[in-house]
Fold:
Amino acid sequence: MNSILAFLGENIQMIYIVILSIFVGVEVIGKVPSVLHTPLMSGANAIHGVVIVGSIIVMLNTEPGDILLLSLGFVAVVLGTLNVVGGFVVTDRMLEMFKKKEKK
Structure:
């Protein structure tokens, strides 16, 4: 428990920035019209490739015995990959809506 409190005390400014960015993100997303929400989210999901690369780098620099970091890195890779694939699937479905339909 003391190590958690020490970590919070040392990184309090970073915690404030994360909390403020959550509030700013909610406000920005709340102002986006629903017509634009799907294209913006599909593009944002595709950007999560950065999360995948970052988590792979963390896993490469982790000691082999550190199961916690390896597990968190693996979960980040899996969730980031799902998000990227989902973004591409949504984008593909949106682009299909704009193609001309062939007459039979």
